[in-house]
Amino acid sequence: xxxxxxxxxxxxxxxxxxxxxxxxxxxxxxxxxxxxxxxxxxxxxxxxxxxxxxxxxxxxxxxxxxxxxxxxxxxxxxxxxxxxxxxxxxxxxxxxxxxxxxxxxxxxxxxxxxxxxxxxxxxxxxxxxxxxxxxxxxxxxxxxxxxxxxxxxxxxxxxxxxxxxxxxxxxxxxxxxxxxxxxxxxxxxxxxxxxxxxxxxxxxxxxxxxxxxxxxxxxxxxxxxxxxxxxxxxxxxxxxxxxxxxxxxxxxxxxxxxxxxxxxxxxxxxxxxxxxxxxxxxxxxxxxxxxxxxxxxxxxxxxxxxxxxxxxxxxxxxxxxxxxxxxxxxxxxxxxxxxxxxxxxxxxxxxxxxxxxxxxxxxxxxxxxxxxxxxxxxxxxx
Amino acid sequence: xxxxxxxxxxxxxxxxxxxxxxxxxxxxxxxxxxxxxxxxxxxxxxxxxxxxxxxxxxxxxxxxxxxxxxxxxxxxxxxxxxxxxxxxxxxxxxxxxxxxxxxxxxxxxxxxxxxxxxxxxxxxxxxxxxxxxxxxxxxxxxxxxxxxxxxxxxxxxxxxxxxxxxxxxxxxxxxxxxxxxxxxxxxxxxxxxxxxxxxxxxxxxxxxxxxxxxxxxxxxxxxxxxxxxxxxxxxxxxxxxxxxxxxxxxxxxxxxxxxxxxxxxxxxxxxxxxxxxxxxxxxxxxxxxxxxxxxxxxxxxxxxxxxxxxxxxxxxxxxxxxxxx
Lengths: 382, 325
What we know:
heterodimer; A: alpha/beta; 6-stranded parallel sheet; 6-stranded mixed sheet; 15 helices; 16% strand; globular; B: mainly alpha; two-stranded antiparallel ribbon; 4 strands
């Protein structure tokens, strides 16, 4: 018998043994799990990252909720295109999670996600995103395993930030954003450009950032280019505010000696250093504090997993951003929205579940979301 | 004292003689052993979850687009070139296909394929006519494709027509890949296109002296690659339901999978299409298995990189300057 034939047969036999052996291990594990009570829930969190300033606070808040409610969280990060996100959903379903929280990159991948979760009978919720496409929304809402979403009142915040620019007397703005393929991006972009036109503010240029190519560096280059090309520019609108973007703009504005002459408004910026930025006049408006959004989606999912769903229909939660417009507000924001502080305690989180609070209803959750503001946070902690 | 060849052979033990005699075969075995090792490791480490029917089907499904891209790249690599434009062309192909689908769904697939073919031809044409290394041209095409696709999707979300959703089943992906692989195998092993491309990769001077029209056969290879990337563009559209952003790192995933599958990046007669399947499965199993093990995503890329490095370190034939014979 040749070496080739012998090896092939040995490998085939080895693979058969492994499959059989693994099946046995799986059966033993299933028996072990059956002996445990109550079963620990495992929830997959599919999110762009958990390490920038805002997302690390999302993780911290979710970890705190998970600890309070005996949930294991499996974070799946770094999936920056639709195919990768779909693959992530497939893999976490295969990993045997009980539920999925996802921040979908775009509406277009939602039909596939709802199909996979429906087929696997795994409940799922969106965080940070609604569904803008009417056909996709209708399709997804028919799926009994789609429990709903939490998203921010993007249009309101977009109008408010644009009005801050107008009230400040700014006339010429440059826009910086990621490709707005998702509902949040589309609403922001459309509302802001419409409101800018309505307020008579000229859009000089737009810079579309790439997720995959160091956006912090891109924004520095873009700001330099804006200043070189458009000396009349008096403001920059950051439609996204991941870590480092505002710092990048600020460093260029400072080095080019136009601090206070070029004003910045931004979404989603973390608390670090914003007092100084407001004091210097570089920053005149911010919509942020949205990091609590995933907690509300988590609560929807957790109640369902405990067999006590808050509703038989998909739940749609719309929360307001915290709008910061002055140095004093920036000081308060920095106090409560830093990495050492969570705006909901574990006890408050427990009270959002029927397991610990049988009287808790969907209306109660909706009221909590409605009440959410910096004044609400201050009143609960002071 | 200088040892004669006769004495050297005489001093061999039966074991070393066995390895020496079968060294070429054993070298070919490394990728298979890698596949077995990855399969075994995850089967045991995940308590069998990785070898459930559901998960094995998933691993195959997740490998299909990478493997389809790998088939085309194998043709290009076989004559000693490298095509880095895969991700950029895939993105453009998906964008143009989806845009065409807004006018008529019947246009989606032809436009996807046509886009791939056009960019394959452009890359090959410039490489052959202007004598610029293909890696440089394809590098440029990669950025062009990503940039253009990114700019188009920056303003609108492009959805695949719903009429295609019924095709989105594992069976369809497997069937498409099986047909493509069989066709590619026939072309690669039994036609002049495959044979001449490998001959060019082995020794371009000898190929020219033998009367092989090197430029023509290189263009054929890029056209095949472009066609397959166009098909990848459609499969990607089908899988994601639309275009979200430019495909990131697709070309490197394909390249890594081929290296893991044992391909020689310098081309030549040692290039085998089986590398496509072995490498694609290894890469897919690793990505899937690490999630099953709840390894944090931040570490997954690092682990993949280390395994890639280890594969290259083990298989790199330093004397020949090639990666796996």
